[in-house]
Amino acid sequence: MYGVVLWSDRRENRAVIWCEDHGDLAYYDGGEAKEHAKATLDPGDLVRFDVSEGKRMRIVSNPQVVASEQYPSLAGDLAREGARHGADAPCEDRSNRDAGSGKGAVFGKIVPLDPHRRVAAMPGKIHRSTG
């Protein structure tokens, strides 16, 4: 799955990731492997990862940065939309995630996630890619 890092803590090697399927957020906890972590995750990074359903949340494993700083304003954009519609306003009914399902009503604006979008390199910025 692809997603965008909304929040990260480098010291604890943890991150919260917004998933391309617009489902629940996913949580990454690198735990004890933080000294040997393959990926350093920063807010705005586009990542590819495996996801599994935990008891209380979606769990990320094997995260790989596809492009750093691909969506640097996404966390703020989502927060502004949430505030505009009220914190308890539903964005989308789960049954409406599948195209053409015809179920549920969309109340919020969907922010598109395009993992194949190309970003021009900005001066002084390094864009990582693990291909």
Element layout with pairings:
Layout (H helix, E strand, L loop, with lengths): L1 E8 L4 E6 L6 E4 L16 E8 L4 E10 L6 H12 L46
Parallel strand pairs: 3-5
Antiparallel strand pairs: 1-2, 1-4, 2-3, 4-5
Report on the structure:
The structure is a single chain. The chain has 131 residues and is mainly beta. It has one domain: Nucleic acid-binding proteins (OB fold (Dihydrolipoamide Acetyltransferase, E2P), Beta Barrel). The chain has one helix spanning 74-85; strands at 2-9, 14-19, 26-29, 46-53, 58-67. A five-stranded mixed β-barrel has the order 1-2-3-5-4. Strand 4 and strand 5 (58-67) form a beta hairpin. The longest helix is centred in the middle third of the chain and has 12 residues, at 74-85. The chain is globular, with a radius of gyration of 15 Å. Residues 89-109 and 121-131 have low confidence and may be disordered.
Q: What is this structure, in a nutshell?
A:
By secondary structure, the protein is mainly beta. The chain has one helix at residues 74-85; strands at 2-9, 14-19, 26-29, 46-53, 58-67. The chain has one domain (2-96): Beta Barrel (OB fold (Dihydrolipoamide Acetyltransferase, E2P)), CATH 2.40.50.140.
Number of helices: 1
Overall mean confidence score, pLDDT? 74
**Backbone structural class:** mainly beta
CATH class: Mainly Beta
Quote the beta fraction: 25-35%
CATH superfamily: Nucleic acid-binding proteins
Q: Span from first to last CA?
A: 14 Å
CATH architecture: Beta Barrel
Q: What does the radius of gyration come to?
A: 15 Å
Order the strands across the largest sheet as they lie in space: 1-2-3-5-4
Largest sheet, in brief, is: 5 strands, mixed, barrel
Uncertain parts: 89-109, 121-131
How many strands appear in the DSSP assignment?
5
* String of helices and strands: EEEEEH
Percent of residues in helices: under 10%
Report the principal-axis shape.
globular
CATH topology value: OB fold (Dihydrolipoamide Acetyltransferase, E2P)
Number of domains: 1
